[in-house]
Automatic annotation (TrEMBL):
InterPro entries: Epimerase_deHydtase (IPR001509), NAD(P)-bd_dom_sf (IPR036291). GO terms for molecular function: uronate dehydrogenase activity. This is Uronate dehydrogenase. It is an enzyme of class 1 (oxidoreductase). Pfam families: Epimerase. SUPFAM superfamilies: NAD(P)-binding Rossmann-fold domains. The keyword Chaperone does not apply. Residues 5-163 form the NAD-dependent epimerase/dehydratase domain. Its EC number is 1.1.1.203.
Amino acid sequence: MLNKIVLTGAAGALGHALREQLSKMAKELVSTDIAEAQGDLMPNETWVTADLGDFDPVLNMMEGASMVVHFGAIANESDFDSILHSNFRGTYNIWEAARRHGVQRVVYASSIHAVGMYPKNEYIGVDTPHRPDTFYGLAKCFGENLGRMMWEKNGIEAVCLRILSAAPVRSTRALGTWLSMPDLVHLVTRAIDTPTTEFTIIYGVSNNDRCPVDNSGASFLGYKPQDNAEQFAEEIFAEATPADPSDPAQTRHAGPFATIPFGQGVDLSKMGGSQSED
């Protein structure tokens, strides 16, 4: 059992889903978000309300931590200054505080949007170079590169979870990109309990028949998703509008993120969700 885990973005849908399992994996769980605590705390859980863009509270909560599960961020495209504060600076603060306190590993909620502009008919792997679609995706590239640098120069392990769609299946895109909550918990558990990871990228996606990405390069983590979005296919296709092969929103891994203007968010409910960290 680990001494202490710090979970950021703990008030978001995904962070909330992780709290119970993380509390079982460490003597102490520190959950943090810019929002107040959501629901009752676990017996070994402490809640810290903080802005990750401010370094001092991040540094303080990291003391004595074995690992950090970093899900705190703006979870959609937004104006650059907001993304800069929460997603760039907040992520830097996490890794810098981890470096100062000798934290073993950072488990980072990255995103498909770090590689979102690749065509969907390209079966991309975990070693695929960055090709972001938005300021939001660009921040995920920054987080992955920061994690690699901190591993290579400071020995802090990193597992970067390129999450596809961790939300109810409401679109044809989500039939391939869906990540169920049980599979999310399993993914994060494997990212924590694998003895050594060095720097690793893995896609956060369920065992979907139409999965558009390849996780074989990270198979050593032992992530074996169980859920499959195909159970929703008949209903989704019955309500779907005709496909348009000239629309990048339908032909790129990014979905609608491929076509929105910089700084303008999308309605995540219509695309089957994004990672919804916060």
